[in-house]
Design a protein that fits this description.
Helices cover 46% and strands 0% of the residues. It has 154 residues and is mostly helical. This is CCHC-type domain-containing protein.
């Protein structure tokens, strides 16, 4: 794997005194959890760089671990022929108000809506007025007292 070799070259350039075992450990820590675990469990004793590369390639070929780190760009270019939409005649019915059915306006600007709204306001005001009416004593005449049957009298 060229990635492993590039990482090894970078680490040796930065730290020439670093041992090969330490370089391998640092590279494995960059591989990721599953791939790192698989390689460490396979390579228990210190191996050479070639052994690490061979075990990495074997693991990635047998499993899906570590694949698709770099996905090649997808070619989204068209074939050059413009694709046109089929010419369908659109059945566009004239827009109409869903409140009154007129084609001159829509529901949100319907004049009947405002009339209904005004009538509702008037009805609310009328009910408030009837609730505020008070009874005068002269308007109220007590009814004649009725005699209760003997069973109900006290």
């Amino acid at each position: 794997m060229s990635w492993f070799l590039k990482q090894k070259d970078r680490l040796t350039a930065l730290n020439p005194d670093m041992s090969e075992t330490m370089i391998h450990k640092r590279i494995l820590s960059k591989c990721g959890g599953d791939l790192e675990h698989a390689i460490r469990s396979r390579c228990i004793k210190p191996f050479s760089t070639e052994d690490y590369i061979n075990s990495m390639e074997d693991i990635t070929n047998r499993t899906k671990i570590g694949r698709n780190w770099y996905k090649p760009p997808i070619d989204n270019k068209t074939s050059g022929k413009p694709v046109s939409k089929p010419n369908k005649p659109h059945d566009k019915a004239p827009l109409k108000c869903h409140k009154c059915g007129s084609t001159s306006h829509l529901k949100n600007t319907c004049p009947k809506k405002t009339i209904i709204h005004e009538i509702e306001i008037e009805k609310v005001e009328d009910t408030k007025e009837t609730n505020n009416l008070s009874l005068n004593e002269s308007d109220y005449e007590p009814s004649e007292e009725k005699e209760l049957p003997d069973e109900l009298s006290i």
